Amino acid sequence: MKAENNDSPEKLVLETRGLKAYYDQSIIIRGVDLEVPPGKVVSLMGRNGVGKTTTLKAIYGLVDSTEGEVILDGEAIQGFAPEKRARQGLAYVPQGRHIFPTLTVWENLQTAIIVHGDKAREQLDFVYTLFPVIKDMLKRKGGVLSGGQQQQLAIARALLTCPKLLILDEPTEGIQPSIIDQIEDTIKMLRETGRMGILLVEQYLDFAKAVSDRFYVMDRGMTVAQGSIAELSDEIVTSHLQV
Ligand SMILES: Nc1ncnc2c1ncn2[C@@H]1O[C@H](COP(=O)(O)OP(=O)(O)OP(=O)(O)O)[C@@H](O)[C@H]1O
């Protein structure tokens, strides 16, 4: 679904055009067109194995064999290494968090500061305000944090890079309900700041509905439905999301 007004196309923070991805010789993503407007939360949904994570990895440059365009804030970034995409304003929080368990919370945050410098350091107060628990645990090893705290640390580290687009892969996976509520509040708060677009892969339907402005549904490597989150009908859920 294109921008509302065809006369003056909406500026997009992310656009993919005909994005394809392959593992070995097999095509996994078959030409995906996504649009994320600035300040909006867009959910990419679909059953297990349809290619959601591969789409995110292809956007971030983690799949070797891809075709098509990835446009970040008007600039084509396909072909760039992940580090360069990160410097251009892409942040990716993968499924399972991937914090450094043997580093302290502070050292985990420092990994972003080392790469992004003063720009990242200036964000520290912002992330401490979003996640007070992170500030309280700076000296603890990442690995001793609960799953929810590790998720907050992973998001905090991503936010230090001042992303134009924040990519979150299943942030609620394996996390207890009270922390899921906190992550929901965080995403809503980030949306309110208007600082970034957010592309979210989420299996938990109520969560996706609560935080998203728009959705795409994938099936077998293609998008098969899209629209405003209010347009996510029971029929789409039954056909493409329910197991
Ligand atoms: N590194 C890889 N090498 C080969 N095949 C892979 C690799 N990663 C994923 N696949 C395959 O690609 C397809 C899409 O996987 P992907 O993880 O993108 O799906 P998904 O929609 O994110 O599912 P899930 O919700 O289970 O993570 C699956 O058939 C999967 O087995």
Automatic annotation (TrEMBL):
Task: Give the signal peptide, or none.
Answer: none
User: Which parts of the sequence belong to the ABC transporter domain?
Assistant: 14-243
PROSITE patterns documented for this protein: ABC_TRANSPORTER_2 (PS50893)
SUPFAM superfamilies linked to this entry: P-loop containing nucleoside triphosphate hydrolases
Provide the alphabetized UniProt keywords: Amino-acid transport, ATP-binding, Nucleotide-binding, Transport
Mention any Pfam family matching this sequence. ABC_tran
Instruction: State whether keyword Transport applies.
Output: yes
> Which GO terms of the molecular function aspect are on file?
ATP binding; ATP hydrolysis activity; branched-chain amino acid transmembrane transporter activity
> What biological-process terms (Gene Ontology) are attached?
L-amino acid transport
- Record bears the keyword Aminoacyl-tRNA synthetase: no
Give the UniProt family note: Belongs to the ABC transporter superfamily.
Question: This chain belongs to which protein, by name?
Answer: Urea ABC transporter ATP-binding subunit UrtE
Task: Tell me what organism the protein belongs to.
Answer: Puniceicoccus vermicola
